[in-house]
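Input structure tokens:
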């Protein structure tokens, strides 16, 4: 896995890095508009109705770091995770 680039944290990179860490995840478009993600198999976390695929990917990244803290993925992205108040 490559070192994170602050200017290039996009959905494709996040999904590719999840795959490289063997973490099951997906982002899909939902009928009424927006995006949905599923993390894990069986699902560990889900997120609904994000307005952009980028927002869904960022939330997916944060959840993956929380659910898989010992993964290569979390080691790469842990410093980017938004700590909700």
């Amino acid at each position: 896995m490559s070192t994170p680039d602050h200017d290039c944290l996009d959905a494709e990179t996040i999904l590719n890095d999840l795959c490289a860490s063997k973490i099951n995840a997906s982002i899909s478009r939902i009928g009424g508009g927006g995006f949905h993600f599923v993390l894990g198999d069986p699902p560990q976390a889900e997120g609904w109705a994000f307005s952009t695929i980028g927002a869904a990917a960022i939330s997916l990244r944060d959840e993956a770091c929380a659910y898989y803290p010992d993964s290569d993925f979390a080691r790469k992205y842990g410093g980017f995770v938004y700590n909700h108040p």
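The longest strand covers residues 45-50. The mean pLDDT is 85.
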